[in-house]
Amino acid sequence: MGGHRQAFGLETKYCAFGDGLALSDCVIEGYASLFGAVDQGGDVVQRGAYDGSLRRIARGGRRVKMLWQHDPTRPIGVWDEVREDEKGLYVRGRVLSEVQNGREALALLEAGAIDGLSIGYRTLRSEKAAAGRSLLEIDLWEVSVVTFPMLPEARVQTGEDAVSDIARDLAEAFAAAREQMT
């Protein structure tokens, strides 16, 4: 079920919501890709694989597209933040409830019926790996909300996890401020 698909030179990979996706009003966030994790197709995305693509997108004044089920005729929102960090490809954006597909996506996300993120990309550089490929450079086209995840072990944030993360971040900020004051 789900996984890796290639059509017209565009590849897609899926990642499950779990501890890495947070849903708040119409804002969603999570990891669309995790570095070093072997997906169901045997591919492993390496740290830095998205860097060049993200820089080109930013230089061009463009954004990574937010689509519904990889369908280019069904955009459902905008990704306000797409970046690499030590864990993977982090995304944060808004599902537009003013758009019919956005309303449907939100209803399904809130109900837990849809629980996946998926990347649409073109491989620019890879090496053969034991089970598949080691993806070294990726041209990122879009991140979709999808039904079936390719990378089920990817961590997704639930609402409770997001609150815990905010509380931890605030505690760390207060501790750092106290240190600077003494």
TrEMBL record:
Pfam families: Peptidase_S78. GO terms for biological process: proteolysis. InterPro entries: Peptidase_S78_dom, Prohead_protease. The keyword Hydrolase applies. The keyword Protease applies. Keywords: Hydrolase, Protease, Viral release from host cell. Residues 27-163 form the Prohead serine protease domain. Coiled coil: none annotated. GO terms for molecular function: peptidase activity. It comes from the Bacteria. This is HK97 family phage prohead protease. It comes from Halovulum marinum. The lineage of its organism: Bacteria, Pseudomonadati, Pseudomonadota, Alphaproteobacteria, Rhodobacterales.
